[in-house]
């Protein structure tokens, strides 16, 4: 039975075994126009990072996507519906739930049901459900089908060879401390565990705040967004909206950090990124899914997030030297 990537009850990330990599050298899964499909949820941060990559790479016409409902029935997992705003039916198989997609690979599958999924419409199987690997594939393997070409102002290489070592180092830092750190904080079982995990999150945010005083983006010397920025942003954009209250990550709001708030505003205001953010889905998924910390599943009305639309000055980095 295949296992899937998911966050367990302690906030630890379990890796997937659906790990095929699309490439021209793969015997089965080769880059092709309109062959692959992405299943995702606007609520899930690991889905968001994949969707942002899809948008920044200009691959919407090459790879379509289906959006799962933010209300998750834990007996069947994510579902598809036409009635919830922002959601879609399963555009490929017309299934009612994501679990049915996993059962295409294994009829007796009863493991964790997770998103995102990169799906092959030709062979009707899951190719990969590891968000980091899907991001890398979208960045590299489909450029010939993109409407954004190298040399153009709107072209992004999210994993450029000259910065790969730095990107890997940053990813290894932010994954346990921030991306997963907020979950470890919120899912702690004792006061001491919570305090320790919370301190890890905010110590890491302080380090990133200091880093952003010197560089516009996370990778030193890069004048464009990389995958590390996408991975961090996917957590930060949920911080004030949900993690602050739900997971008690409340020592400080992101909007209180001069550099981080400015950085988040810049990324949020990029049209390709902005189109992937649905705060209604984010809040309703988080506050209803993690019922161990919110058993009544009440979703807060606030907070006011208008600060995200205020102007930023990240293009004037010389001011910070």
Give the helices and strands, then pairings.
Layout: E1 6-7, E2 13-14, E3 36-40, H1 45-56, E4 64-67, H2 98-105, E5 117-120, E6 125-128, H3 131-140, H4 164-179, H5 181-186, H6 191-211, H7 227-246, H8 258-268, H9 271-274, H10 279-289
Parallel strand pairs: 3-4
Antiparallel strand pairs: 1-2, 3-5, 5-6
Helix pairs in contact: 1-3, 1-7, 4-6, 4-7, 7-10
Any overview of this molecule?
By secondary structure, the chain is α+β, with helices and mostly antiparallel strands. The protein has 10 helices and 6 strands; from the N terminus they run βββαβαββαααααααα. The strands form 2 sheets. A 4-stranded mixed beta sheet has the order 4-3-5-6, sandwiched between helices. Strands 1-2 form a two-stranded antiparallel ribbon. Helix 4 runs parallel beside helix 7 and helix 7 packs across helix 10. The longest helix is centred in the middle third of the chain and has 21 residues. The N terminus is likely disordered.
Give me the secondary-structure category.
alpha+beta
Major sheet characteristics: 4 strands, mixed
Low-pLDDT runs: 1-6
Kindly state the percentage of residues in helix. 25-40%
Q: Please, what is the average pLDDT?
A: 93
Strand content: 5-15%
Q: How many DSSP helices?
A: 10
Query: SSE string, helix = H, strand = E?
Result: EEEHEHEEHHHHHHHH
Instruction: Provide the gyration radius in Å.
Output: 19 Å
Amino- and carboxy-terminal Cα gap? 54 Å
List how many beta strands DSSP finds. 6
Strand order of the largest sheet: 4-3-5-6
What best-fitting shape do the alpha-carbon axes yield? globular
